[in-house]
Structure of Exopolysaccharide biosynthesis polyprenyl glycosylphosphotransferase:
Amino acid sequence: MKNNLKSLTILLYKLVVYYLLYTVFFQMFELHNVGLQYVSRTTVITTMTFAVILVLMVFVYGNFSIGKQKSKPIIFSTTIAVVLTDIVTYIQLMVMNTNPHNNQTFRIEQLDILLYVILMQVIIISIAAYVGNWLYFKLYTAEHVLIVKSYESDDDTLRKIHRYLSNYKLQYRVVDVIDYSKINSFNFSDIDRVVCVGIHNEERSFLTDFCYKNGISISFTPEITDVVELAGEQVVYDDIPLIVVESKGLSFEQKFFKRILDLICSILGLILSSPIWIIAGIAIKLNDGGKIFFRQERYTENGKVFKVFKFRTMKENVENYSSTENDDRITAVGKVLRKTRMDELPQILNIIKGDMSMVGPRPEMLENVHQYESDLPQFRYRLKVKAGLTGIAQIEGKYNTTPKDKLIMDLMYIENYSIWMDIKLILRTATVLVKKESTEGFNTESK
């Protein structure tokens, strides 16, 4: 009962924040739009547009995740969601203002009001995020976490998970890190969550059963087969429950609608980003006078080789291998392009051509693929779909994410594919710009 009241408090807090964001938009535009000053068709449609788009954007960028994220990421993601909601609702309002009683033709006006609304909303979001996290941790204490490893656990993975949990001290408190062989002598009475790192399936099954029975949450690092199996369809043959795993890639219908989405987004993206192309081209030429574009052979669907387009970020005529930290081959302009991920904009041409998709596994260098496949033959599973400009691995990972983890994230996308997932990942791509680590290179020894 007590936990339900806490959850209700947080839910009501979020609803109040969303209501305030709507009120700012509505009240400011009401002053200059007669149709919003009383209950009318314009009022109802504007309200519904704002509400529906906000719900969709919240689903994409996160439901004002206080208690789950730090305040700054909440502010950034919620701001993107609300700004996109404002823009769509603003356009809808301008369309409805095009009538015999108002504007005879469609006009873009009252932009100063829109900017003021966005400014006020950002202030509300910023205050609400910090106050919300403060309130959340007044109501909830940190989860007590036990990390269980095996003698085969990867040290780097273990270190990353421990560092992640330690960075969220208000959310998690790591009680201990133990070997699986010691779990029988460990007291679980104070544990809220178990994190398994590199545990074999049989051992993990035992821990999952134990945790489920005792109301303890469990997280684990997946193997490649886990991702494939978990994405399977749950069916019943007669009275026998089965999980059906298909291995055919995307269906004809999925490929058709994916291609339509690719063409719409790439052509629109080419038009909107054209000023960036001009600026980047001039900057590259002024920097060293070399070529603007860089072309290189990469793999895409079914192992087909194509030439990817990118803005050149490295000096010309240098040895070709994956970028490293503090790589002296990268030009001054290249550093800016890589940091903002603008070096990949020319891949829009590959998408229009049909070699790539908006969303899919990152197109890897041929040399890298051969090396990865020699150590991890399953790496070729990524080639079940076209290479993509963005994707789960590009958003959540880094340049130096391990090949196995890249593969697992790509399989999460492939095996759970839907057109809505593509739209969601395209919209989420903006969040990469604030992740400094997403553009990190490999350590020198791993090049």
In short: The two ends are 55 Å apart (CA to CA). The chain has three domains: 2-139, 143-221, 252-446.
